[in-house]
Design brief:
mainly beta; eight-stranded antiparallel barrel
């Protein structure tokens, strides 16, 4: 097995799914470069920049639980046949943030399966996100995956 990581910023919408009480989240993320530099002076400098390349798509179904947590399952597809399917690993939580315009939250997902380059994948994806009153979502995802070694022909 080999380790593979990704880190992306997804933006999009969360909308109620009829009368079910569930939410549907649909977001997209451009190819990007995220850099964290430790420096003298202010200490930590972080930059996020879009770069040339395609974009990833994300869709999930969110189920609120009576204790205030939530469960989630869905798909991340990067391009062509390259998809990851996930479900809740650790229930999510969301609540007020320091910025009154947003709620913030986090959740961890377990990779259930994959397609394309992710066939046979396993691992964990973490999500830290904000949600505003209009349903706008900004979601920072970090995935640590384990992929089977491909046989050379």
């Amino acid at each position: 097995m080999k380790q593979w990581i990704y880190c992306m910023r997804f933006k999009g919408q969360a909308k109620p799914d009829g009368d079910s009480g569930e939410m549907i989240v649909e977001t997209a993320a451009p190819s990007c470069s995220i850099t964290t530099a430790l420096e003298d002076g202010p200490g930590v400098k972080v930059t996020w920049q879009p770069i040339v390349g395609g974009s990833a798509q994300f869709q999930s179904r969110v189920q609120r639980q009576p204790d205030g947590s939530f469960l989630e399952s869905g798909t991340v597809w990067f391009s062509g046949p390259d998809k990851l399917y996930f479900s809740t690993f650790s229930p999510g939580r969301m609540g007020p943030s320091a910025d009154q315009r947003y709620q913030s939250g986090s959740i961890a997902w377990k990779v259930e399966s994959g397609e394309g380059q992710f066939q046979g994948a396993s691992g964990i994806i973490t999500s830290n996100f904000t949600l505003d009153a209009q349903g706008d979502v900004s979601d920072y995802q970090f995935g640590l995956l384990f992929l089977p070694e491909k046989e050379e022909l």
